[in-house]
Specification:
This protein is of the alpha/beta class. It has nine helices and seven strands; from the N terminus they run H-E-H-H-E-H-E-H-E-H-E-E-H-E-H-H. The strands form two sheets. The protein has a five-stranded mixed beta sheet, with helices on both faces. Strands 1-2 form a two-stranded parallel ribbon. The protein is globular.
């Protein structure tokens, strides 16, 4: 997912992107796999493999730092602390984003110095991002209303990265996953209700061909 998000910045954004992993080999492998998936020469040229040893220089040469690691709080905390240590003396012109699908953006922002917290925001894309354009933008309590940095990144995501941008509040699951989990929960409850009439296989046969959609239409009437 991280490499695919990087590819969005490299291709649609026409940006030089440092792809930072635990090792240079992992970054090279991620870039190559993404290229084979997308088949865009611009990705291969603009995605530059790197590792944590060179994190400081990657951050120094970047305007936007985007974290998209495993969806576990302790791992994300470690990564952001690495970023904080690598920021240097002045990061006032930089933007910090997390691609988390549901962890607290405000809590992540609090890993940074107070003066930089208003520059931190959520930017959650959906996998695979080349085909699913929805992008949730999540502000924190450290931003003023209509914050200029947040609004600029929203515009960049919409106009340059060609995302379908929705602003959501900093609540667990944000928008997409809250709807998705509700949908899945109702499907499971209905499968349990009809467990002697096919159960999960029955529900899969009815819903399996349809994508998850933001509605309350899963109040099924099964005769």
């Amino acid at each position: 997912m991280g490499a695919r998000v990087a590819a969005i910045f490299a291709s649609f954004g026409n940006a030089k992107v440092y792809l930072v992993s635990r090792s240079i080999e992992k970054s090279i492998d991620a870039r190559n796999k993404t290229y084979l998936s997308v088949r865009a020469e611009s990705i291969k040229e603009k995605m530059i493999p790197s590792d944590y040893e060179h994190l400081e220089e990657c951050i120094r040469d970047s305007e936007l730092i985007f974290e998209t690691c495993s969806e576990e709080w302790n791992i994300k905390k470690q990564v952001h602390r690495r970023i904080v240590d690598a920021i240097g003396a002045d990061a006032s012109e930089k933007v910090f984003c997390s691609g988390t699908s549901g962890l607290s953006i405000t809590k992540l922002a609090e890993l940074y110095l107070q003066k930089y917290r208003h520059q931190f925001m959520g930017m959650h894309m959906f996998n695979p991002p080349y085909h699913r354009t929805l992008c949730e933008m999540i502000p924190t309590k450290y931003m003023e209303k209509n914050d200029s940095v947040f609004e600029a990144v929203k515009a960049y995501a919409s106009q340059i990265l060609r995302r379908t941008v929705v602003e959501t509040s900093d609540t667990p699951g944000f928008l997409g996953n809250r709807i998705g989990f509700q949908f899945i929960n109702e499907a499971l409850q209905t499968a349990e209700h009809y467990k002697h009439n096919g159960g999960i296989d029955y529900i899969d046969a009815i819903l399996g061909m349809f994508p998850v959609v933001p509605c309350r239409c899963l109040s099924l009437r099964i005769l």
